[in-house]
Design goal:
The chain is mainly beta and 129 residues long. It contains one helix and eleven strands, in the order βββββββββαββ. A hairpin with a 4-residue loop joins β7 and β8. It is globular.
Length: 129
């Protein structure tokens, strides 16, 4: 029902900026939760940011708060992650994900178990020291 394709990854020097994109097609709607995740070798998958489409409300992991911004255009047809002040520890494969949910379940991952059903293929972000 939902197809997700990430793009925009690459290599950047520490302190630099990068914007990655997720093109969504299919049945994205106001009750959709969309998010960015990342996984580096030897580490657990980490939720980075989430956005609830209908309310345009957001959640950020503490590790990226103040540096990254998640946003949407055209009701979730495109999802962005603007990454500023990049650090070597931000190096990871970044994945876009989507699922249907309530706003609360979407934006409170510390409280609620929320399983994303739809995933993109990932885009690699490498931050050079």
């Amino acid at each position: 029902q939902v197809q997700l394709v990430e793009s925009g990854g690459g290599s950047v020097q520490a302190g630099g900026s990068l914007r990655i994109s997720c093109a969504a097609s299919g049945n994205i709607r106001g009750s959709s939760c969309m998010g960015w995740f990342r996984q580096a070798p030897g580490k657990e998958r980490e939720g980075v940011a989430r956005l609830y489409i209908g309310a345009d409300s957001t959640y950020y992991a503490d590790s990226v708060k103040g540096r990254f911004t998640i946003s949407q255009v055209n009701a979730g047809s495109t999802l962005y992650l603007q990454m500023n002040s990049l650090k070597p520890e931000d190096t990871a494969m970044y994945y876009c994900a989507a699922e249907y949910s309530s706003e609360g379940y979407c934006l409170d991952p510390l409280k609620y178990r929320f399983e994303f059903k739809y995933w993109g293929q990932g885009t690699q972000v490498t931050v050079i020291s």
